[in-house]
Design brief:
single chain, alpha/beta, five-stranded mixed beta sheet, 12 strands, disordered C terminus
């Protein structure tokens, strides 16, 4: 193969297919028609003497050769982008790009409506996609550039290639339906009685179906336990279920504040101290200095700050 005659646009197509695992979605990401992407893929297959992607169900699965090429191609494209941008001022109004975010429905409910209002006015060429927090493992998703930014609790030190920024702290509150007979004599905002907390059935938000969370860790330290009878992947579904009056739940106070009144829920302080999760924004270090990526991260922090969730930087 004559490297000097190689069309670098083919690498953009290859990278887009690696991210999207679909010719159609890859074309949408880089602004090419489906036939144009298919033609570029066929050229790559001929030049590299490999199928690169094979059909597996509804997606294209990379061959071992494509897997070996993925990271070097992605790093080369990122380096080329940095070199071409140089010190040129970033202009959101004329910028076009798809960004993919990942996190809990906490963010789709509280962040995304406000963030989109701002981006639509400032950068009409930007398109956003938001994946559920259980859609893919954070480390691999960031390494593959399948996701630009992940917003999750800081549960462990991230890999060396991942950068992070503390967004806010998310203390828990206990929520129950206001007409639930078991809480009739409790004053909203007071500490939920420990014995009653352990006796009542609970709903829990867990992206992986777990039946335990931070609240259970705190209870175990005190030699107590609760009855989690329902595990759901979204905060909204937990709140809706609790509103029916049969269960209680521990939810982030920021989320409860936004939805408690409209769902007929009342809030209480936890019956004992619980570790407060730190919610971080994570991204691949290759994007640390990328002007567009920095701009989006700054807008996320700005919107959260305006929503009374102060952003704080962290290494």
């Amino acid at each position: 193969m004559n490297i000097a005659a190689f069309d670098l646009n083919l690498l953009r197509v290859f990278d887009a297919i690696m991210r999207e695992r679909s010719v159609t979605r890859a074309g949408e990401q880089i602004g090419l028609s489906q036939p144009a992407v298919s033609a570029a893929l066929n050229r790559l297959r001929f030049l590299l003497d490999d199928q690169l992607f094979v059909r597996r169900g509804h997606e294209l699965a990379p061959t071992p050769r494509a897997e070996d090429l993925a990271l070097p191609v992605r790093e080369a494209l990122a380096g080329l982008e940095r070199a071409l941008l140089g010190d040129r001022k970033f202009e959101p109004a004329s910028f076009e790009r798809n960004f993919t975010l990942q996190g809990a429905d906490f963010f789709t409910s509280l962040l995304m409506p406000l963030l989109w209002d701002q981006l639509a006015a400032e950068a009409p060429g930007v398109r956003l996609r938001f994946l559920d927090s259980g859609a893919a493992g954070m480390d691999q998703a960031l390494q593959d550039d399948a996701v630009d930014i992940v917003m999750e609790p800081y549960l462990r030190p991230p890999p060396e290639f991942v950068s992070s920024q503390l967004l806010f702290h998310a203390p828990f509150v206990v929520v129950a339906a206001k007409d639930m007979p078991a809480i009739a004599n409790l004053k909203p905002g007071s500490a939920f009685p420990l014995d009653l907390f352990c006796a009542l059935p609970h709903a829990l938000r867990a992206k992986d179906g777990a039946l335990e969370g931070p609240m259970d860790t705190a209870l175990a330290v005190a030699g107590r336990s609760r009855r989690v009878v329902l595990s759901l992947p979204h905060f909204y579904s937990v709140a809706l279920t609790v509103a029916r009056g049969r269960l209680i739940a521990a939810l982030p106070g920021l989320y409860a504040n936004a939805f408690a009144a409209r769902m007929g829920l009342v809030q209480f302080e936890p019956p004992l101290p619980v570790d407060v999760p730190e919610i971080h924004m994570f991204w691949h270090r290759r994007h640390d200095a990328n002007p567009a990526h920095k701009w989006l991260r700054e807008r996320i922090v700005q919107v959260l700050r305006e929503a009374d969730m102060p952003g704080e930087e962290s290494a």
